[in-house]
């Protein structure tokens, strides 16, 4: 049996590391959503992570192709729940890494 593959999404990005929010683990399924395009919207929020008790928009800039391949199965993600309400946005998930949990 091989260990699960870790997919690096934004872990090495300076802007990810610079955010003060604590890194946490999230478990859930990734779903594609149609991006909303307009003057006050963020079209890079093309995915949501659904957990047992929450739903978070996922920041996907530069990672859309990678995330698209991971839609559906149960995933374990490390990332930051970033609240951009003070900057005119909303709460979203910035992903560092993802591990597929397969059939768990």
Model description:
The structure is a single chain. It is built from two helices and six strands. The protein is mainly β.
Termini, distance in Å? Answer: 15 Å
Strand count, sense and barrel status of the largest sheet are: 5 strands, mixed, barrel
Structural category is: mainly beta
Oligomer: single chain
Overall average pLDDT: 84
Physical arrangement of strands within the biggest beta sheet: 2-3-4-6-5
Helices and strands in order, then pairings?
Blueprint: E1 6-8, H1 14-18, E2 24-32, E3 47-50, E4 55-59, H2 64-68, E5 74-83, E6 91-100
Parallel strand pairs: 4-6
Antiparallel strand pairs: 1-6, 2-3, 2-5, 3-4, 5-6
List keywords for this structure.
104 residues; mainly beta; five-stranded mixed β-barrel; 6 strands; 10% helix
What is the compact description of this entry?
The chain has 104 residues and is mainly β. The protein contains two helices and six strands, in the order E-H-E-E-E-H-E-E.
